[in-house]
Amino acid sequence: MRGEAEGLIVHLDDDLAVVDKPAGLVVHTAPSVKGVTLVDLLEGVLGGGEAERPGIVHRLDKDTSGLMVVARNQEAHRGLARMVKARELEREYTALVEGHLGSRTGTIDAPLGRHRRRRTQRAVKGAGSRQARTHFEVIETLPSDTLVHARLETGRTHQIRVHFAAIGHPVAGDPEYGSRGRHGLERQFLHSSRLRFTHPRTYEELEFTSELPGDLQAALELARKTG
Questions:
Q1: HEC profile of 96-153
Q2: What is the mean pLDDT of residues 139-167?
Q3: Confidence (pTM)
Q4: Exposure class string for 145-174: b at 16+ Cβ within 10 A, else e
Q5: Phi first, then psi: what are they for 84, rounded to 5°?
Q6: Which residues pair with 155 in a beta bridge?
Q7: Are 198 and 88 in contact (CB under 8 A)?
Q8: Which of 15, 20, 61, 174 is catalytic?
Q9: pLDDT cut 70: percent of the chain above it
């Protein structure tokens, strides 16, 4: 493990680790990825799964910050992967979305697949669409935006970002699906703020939370003042 990774780890045991990923860090290598990844930083900590992405059972986009759980051995990887597939790993995000939602709570149920013209993007009913469901709850209504908690029932690529854009309320600052630079943001306002799951070996109920990082907190304060 590299020295700079120590500050990312919020929980560590023999089977798994929970990390608080900063924005700008890619989770694992891919043909288009250059530079250090989270897997590189956690070398010696991760285990199980595929050789090119050891320990990884779910991902965050490069510019989405917050909590992830990773495996340290093959048995833990199998257990965590099973939880993800069975939708037993609770993942809650804090997001600022443009405009005002029509209800305090709701579910966005729309299949997602690859965008048919822009290959880096996803779209509702895109190529190879698979079921996708996002539950949300309004936390605060601001002059021109809404702060929400979004809970994933499924975990498709860009799911929260595409779902809110599809209903006319893109995530603030999203350079691909919304308005780049809104409230001074240099990325989308999306943070993995809560994880809850059962430890795959000890069966202990674990829950972790993460506060908004500084750039998102600053954008939120600006959004509270901006009509």
A1: EEECCCCCCEEEEECCEEECCCCCCCEEECCEEEECCEEEEEEEEECCCEEEEEEEEC
A2: 95
A3: 0.92
A4: bbbbbbbbbebbbbbbbbbbbbbebbbbbb
A5: -60, -45
A6: none
A7: yes
A8: 61
A9: 93
Rounded CA separation 46/62 (Å): 19
Q: Shortest CA distance to 62 belongs to which of 151, 188, 181, 173?
A: 188
pLDDT at site 116: 73
Note if 63 is an active site residue: no
Token pair in block for residue 183 = 């409230």
Q: What is the DSSP string of 65-103?
A: EEEEEEEBSHHHHHHHHHHHHHT-SEEEEEEEEES--SS
For residue 142, list its beta bridge partners.
none
Structure confidence at residue 31 (pLDDT): 58
- C-beta atoms surrounding 100 within 10 Å: 13
Q: What is the pLDDT of residue 221?
A: 97
Give the domains, in start order, of the chain with CATH numbers. Answer: 3-225 (3.30.2350.10)
85: nearest Cα among 40, 118, 130, 36: 130
- Please, is 205 exposed, middle or buried when counting C-beta atoms within 10 Å of its C-beta (0-12, 13-18, 19+)? exposed
Collect all residues with Cβ–Cβ distance below 8 Å to 108 and sequence separation of at least 6: 133, 134, 136, 163, 164, 166, 167
Q: What is the spatial distance between Cα 48 and Cα 37, in angstroms, rounded to a whole number? A: 17
Q: How confident is the model at residue 163 (pLDDT cuts 50, 70, 90)?
A: very high
Token pair for 131:
């079921």
